[in-house]
């Protein structure tokens, strides 16, 4: 038998697991979508839950209005979980659930559904995202304060390690950090610091001899941007740090336990609304970052769709992204070779730089007392990085093809009359509201009350694990809203830091100076500094855009009331009234603008607040006119990257409304 | 004929509504007192005149409480719990939150509102955030006027400011009761009190009582330091805003006790005189102060005026001394 040469593998590697982040409208519609995706060659499931499910509200809660079934599927109880997974072999499936604050309950629903189908929980494979620190930093779907949240995670780790041994109870997400503006070094450092916080908490709940197994069940969920060489180096650096951490901090010795395992969803931040077809090549290049080098190759990949900056992708758009993965894995030769970067001077140099930078940043987080304590510090650092990224794009220092350079374009045949996106039927919400009420009416209420009573008791007693009581509750028919309320009662409500207060002031360019002078002039004429309210109605926690607007408004000299996330229309109206603002800026990325913005406008009218309202976010072209028809003064979408122009518009609106004449 | 609104000015109308404890007048009142246009300044003077002790027939019934402390001490979380406690006792509350302004841009980020839980349908709670502007001492220019305007209408008016050092002095000039918030393990407050940079507060609040031992020893150290200064009247209260919150009711009681023991007319009169001098200084600068013979002479002059006068009226008496 001939020897395999060093530059070839004895046999071709198996492809990574291929998933598509999917789910919308109803459990039934999503089940059909899942089955379709599996038939197309997808090898794992990745469930997208809607925001009410993620934040622990039932479809009939006031805060759920406009959000039901929008960015994912509503799964309030075991009945819906059964429908969602109908006909899918759970003993054979590898399921990723993007669920965090309510992860313990959704895993409970998954376990109960499997057991109802006669499948042993020990056979279940997959992962719950369950990374709460990044929710505080970047994504905003937290429900409980940091301390109790970390305890829930530790409970799940301790529970699954023996009860659901093939389950990854958490994947540490650096993905959302990059979406929030993290540099590669920040992404590495904060992810590792975050992992340390989780492992330290878990260490108190499992015996030391189990730490190797626990360590091996922690996986990562990373991001990859279009600078794909650097991004690949980032992943190599992470695997080195991970092994080091296991050995040195947790005494893990088994090389199998020390392996750095990660799944990936490539970058959405860099996807553009302008000339959206260019996103396809961006996605391909980003996929290369996580597949090209064998030593740091992803275990599971999901790719965004080309039209994400326009709205929700359709099944065909998602298929296109799946096909990208399949072409890479099955048509190219990348799986036939050992690591192609081994011995590369460039790669080793980049990895070295990142290790050095990440170690320094990790030391700063450690000085703050660890990741939980350092959330405000990290949040402010991310807001700063994001601001710098934006500045570079505005200044043209960072080229984004089709957006700030090569802007000439022919009309795109891909964007059809419906805008080239999927829309969720507005009837879904009412239907889900009725469905959950019918579910509640049809249960054994005594069993539900008993389960909730026990859940509350366990929540208050830190020595107990939340999982058995949660599984019991799931089985009794408790809803995600009830489960979360029981825990909110025990743990208290929480609002995360905004990071905007500490953000560094922008550098003064001539453009900014000009806007600042205008803001000062209008303020002088009005008698008060121009005051703006910035906030996010609904449950969408992606606050990066709103934060950048808030910081820039301050930098041009406005007084900014930053209200943060998760606001009801009534709250926004009340704040606008009490604060006496001259203008309101709202941001929505979850697709719920059609319901929420008119509701805000109505509440403002009822409160007697007559000031201009501008809206930013992922707003399809077709929705702009209806928003203007209900009185919205301006709509900004991802293609409007010039924030000074937005500020100029805003101060112009304030001047008009206040009767301030244009400068002489 | 029906009297048209224009026959009395906006300021006087708002003043009359506040005197009738119409809380819905609060937003417009703040818009007015924050405005610097000459017309609005005149309206503000009318407003405050409507609410002077002479018009009210005594001091405004509301309790003006200054709450201050360094960033990160847990002020807003505490305030959130305090507001809830007051509302549960059926008291109406106005919160005036003062944030620092950026020196560079003149703009500001008023982030505290996001940290106070509130029910948007609750008409008994009013929250207004204001930037401190260029005024030293941590108080927004309009905050004194706002507190004076709202005290006749609300049961409690809270002025929240950031910082340790300068700002307390300013708050002490306008509030009936001053509370300084510190967190355990921070020696700063102690140092400031000892060195006399910070005036002795009426109530010292140690947050994060859930930290147990550290909080206890912080409370002991502060009590000892206050005793050594002879400040036996200052109450030290430990609170925790982490559920289940503790010490909040004690704090509410401590505020009530301080207010009950206070000679309110004396304190309010001193506050109005200090406010008048400060407002005068903003308008006329050091030159104006010299024209009235210096701060001491100015205060003496103010002290000779009718004690029921409102602040703008007091400012006017100083203005008469300035040569045209």
From TrEMBL, chain A:
State the needed cofactors, names only.
Answer: adenosylcob(III)alamin
The record, for InterPro entries, names: Acid_CoA_mut_C (IPR006159), Cbl-dep_enz_cat (IPR016176), Cobalamin-bd (IPR006158), Cobalamin-bd_sf (IPR036724), MeMalonylCoA_mutase_a/b_cat (IPR006099), MMCoA_mutase_a_cat (IPR006098)
Can the keyword Metal-binding be found in this entry's annotation?
Answer: yes
Q: Which residues form the signal peptide?
A: none
Q: Where is the B12-binding domain?
A: 529-657
Its keywords, alphabetically, are: Cobalamin, Cobalt, Isomerase, Metal-binding
Has the keyword Nuclease been applied to this entry?
no
Similarity field: Belongs to the methylmalonyl-CoA mutase family.
What quaternary structure, including any partners, is listed in this protein's UniProt entry?
Answer: Heterodimer of an alpha and a beta chain.
Protein's name according to its UniProt entry: Methylmalonyl-CoA mutase family protein
From TrEMBL, chain B:
Q: Disordered: where is this region? A: 1-20
SMART domains named among the record's database cross-references: AAA (SM00382)
Give all residue intervals belonging to the AAA+ ATPase domain.
61-270
Per the record's keyword annotation, is rRNA-binding included, yes or no?
A: no
Which InterPro entries does its entry note? AAA+_ATPase, GTPase/Isobutyryl-CoA_mutase, P-loop_NTPase
Tell me the keywords, alphabetical order.
Answer: Chaperone, GTP-binding, Hydrolase, Nucleotide-binding
Concerning PANTHER family, the annotation shows: LAO_AO TRANSPORT SYSTEM ATPASE, LYSINE/ARGININE/ORNITHINE TRANSPORT SYSTEM KINASE
Name of the protein this chain belongs to = AAA family ATPase
């Amino acid at each position: 038998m001939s020897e395999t040469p060093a530059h070839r593998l004895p046999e071709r590697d198996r492809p990574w697991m291929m998933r598509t982040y999917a789910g919308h409208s109803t459990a039934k519609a999503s089940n059909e979508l899942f089955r379709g995706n599996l038939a197309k060659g997808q090898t794992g499931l990745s469930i997208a839950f809607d925001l009410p499910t993620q934040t622990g509200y039932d479809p009939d809660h006031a805060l759920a209005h406009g959000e039901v079934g929008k960015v994912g599927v509503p799964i309030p109880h075991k009945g819906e979980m059964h429908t969602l997974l109908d006909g899918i072999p759970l003993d054979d499936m590898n399921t990723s659930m993007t669920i965090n604050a309510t992860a313990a309950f959704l895993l409970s629903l998954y376990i109960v559904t499997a057991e109802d189908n006669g499948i042993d929980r020990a056979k279940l494979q997959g992962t719950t995202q369950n990374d709460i620190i990044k929710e505080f930093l970047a994504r905003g779907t937290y429900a409980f304060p940091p301390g109790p949240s970390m305890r829930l995670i530790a409970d799940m780790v301790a529970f699954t390690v023996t009860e659901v041994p093939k389950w990854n109870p958490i994947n540490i997400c650096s993905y959302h950090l990059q979406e929030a503006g993290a540099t590669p070094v920040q992404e590495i450092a904060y992810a590792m610091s975050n992992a340390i916080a989780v492992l330290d908490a878990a260490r108190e709940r499992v015996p030391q001899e189990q730490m190797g197994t626990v360590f091996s069940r922690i996986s990562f969920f990373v991001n990859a941007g279009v600078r794909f060489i650097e991004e690949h180096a980032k992943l190599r650096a992470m695997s080195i740090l991970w092994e080091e951490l296991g050995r040195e901090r947790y005494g893990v010795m088994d090389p199998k336990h020390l392996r750095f395992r990660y799944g990936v969803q490539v970058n959405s931040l860099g996807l553009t609304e302008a000339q959206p077809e260019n996103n396809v090549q961006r996605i391909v290049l980003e996929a290369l970052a996580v597949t090209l080098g064998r030593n740091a190759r992803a275990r599971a990949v999901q790719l965004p769709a080309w039209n994400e900056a326009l709205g929700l992708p359709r099944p065909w758009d998602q298929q296109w992204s799946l096909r990208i993965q399949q072409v890479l894995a099955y048509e190219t030769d990348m799986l036939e070779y050992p690591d192609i970067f081994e011995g590369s001077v460039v790669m080793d140099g980049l990895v070295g730089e990142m290790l050095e930078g990440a170690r320094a940043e990790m030391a700063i987080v450690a000085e703050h007392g660890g990741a939980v304590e350092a959330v405000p510090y990290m949040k402010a650092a991310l807001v700063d990085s994001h601001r710098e990224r934006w500045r570079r794009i505005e200044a043209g220092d960072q080229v984004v093809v089709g957006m700030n350079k090569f802007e000439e374009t022919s009309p795109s045949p891909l964007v059809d009359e419906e805008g080239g996106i999927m829309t969720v039927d507005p009837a879904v919400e009412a239907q889900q509201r009725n469905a959950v009420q019918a579910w509640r009416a049809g249960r054994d209420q005594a069993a539900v009350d008993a389960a909730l009573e026990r859940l509350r008791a366990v929540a208050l007693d830190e020595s107990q694990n939340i999982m058995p009581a949660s599984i019991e509750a799931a089985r009794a028919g408790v809803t995600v809203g009830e489960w979360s309320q029981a825990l909110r009662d025990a743990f208290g409500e929480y609002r995360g830091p905004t990071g905007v207060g500490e953000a560094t002031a922008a550098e003064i360019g001539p453009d900014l100076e000009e806007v600042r002078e205008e803001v000062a002039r209008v303020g002088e004429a009005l008698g008060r500094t121009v005051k703006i309210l910035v906030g996010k109605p609904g449950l969408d926690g992606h606050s990066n855009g709103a934060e950048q607007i808030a910081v820039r408004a301050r930098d041009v000299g406005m007084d900014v009331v930053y209200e943060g996330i998760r606001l009801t229309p009534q709250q926004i109206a009340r704040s606008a009234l009490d604060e006496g603002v001259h203008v309101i800026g709202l941001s929505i990325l979850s697709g719920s603008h059609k319901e929420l913005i008119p509701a805000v406008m109505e509440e403002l009218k009822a409160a007697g607040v007559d000031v201009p309202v501008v809206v930013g976010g992922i707003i399809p072209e077709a929705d702009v006119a209806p928003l203007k028809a209900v009185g919205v003064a301006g709509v900004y979408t991802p293609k409007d990257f010039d924030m000074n122009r937005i500020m100029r518009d805003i101060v112009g609106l304030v001047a008009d409304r206040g009767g301030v004449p244009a400068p002489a | 004929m029906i009297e048209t609104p224009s026959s009395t000015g906006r300021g006087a109308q708002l003043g009359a509504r506040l005197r009738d404890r119409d809380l819905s007048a609060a937003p417009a009142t703040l818009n007015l007192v924050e405005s610097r246009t000459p017309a609005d300044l005149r309206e503000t003077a009318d407003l405050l005149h409507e609410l002077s002790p002479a018009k009210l027939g005594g001091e405004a019934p509301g309790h003006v409480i200054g709450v201050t402390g360094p960033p990160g001490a847990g002020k807003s979380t505490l305030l959130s719990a305090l507001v809830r406690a007051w509302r549960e006792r059926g008291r109406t509350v106005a919160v005036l939150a003062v944030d620092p302004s950026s020196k560079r841009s003149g703009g500001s980020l008023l982030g505290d509102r996001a940290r106070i839980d509130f029910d948007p349908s609750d008409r008994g709670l009013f929250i207004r955030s204001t930037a401190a502007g260029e005024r030293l001492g941590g108080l927004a220019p309009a905050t004194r006027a706002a507190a004076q305007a709202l005290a006749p209408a609300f049961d409690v008016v809270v002025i929240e400011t950031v910082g340790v050092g300068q700002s307390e002095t300013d708050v002490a000039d306008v509030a009936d009761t001053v509370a300084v918030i510190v967190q355990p393990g921070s020696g700063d407050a102690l140092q400031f009190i000892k060195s006399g940079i910070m005036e002795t507060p009426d109530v010292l609040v140690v947050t994060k009582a859930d930290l147990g031992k550290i909080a206890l020893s912080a409370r002991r150290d502060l009590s000892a330091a206050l005793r050594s200064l002879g400040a036996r009247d200052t109450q030290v209260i430990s609170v925790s805003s982490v559920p289940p919150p503790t010490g909040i009711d004690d704090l509410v009681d401590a505020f009530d006790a301080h207010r009950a023991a206070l000679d309110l007319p004396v304190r309010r009169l001193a506050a109005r005189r200090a406010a008048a001098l400060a407002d005068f200084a903003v308008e006329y600068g050091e030159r104006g102060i010299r024209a009235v013979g210096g701060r001491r002479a100015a205060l003496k002059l103010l002290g000779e005026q009718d004690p029921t006068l409102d602040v703008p009226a007091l400012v006017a008496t100083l203005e008469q001394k300035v040569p045209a």
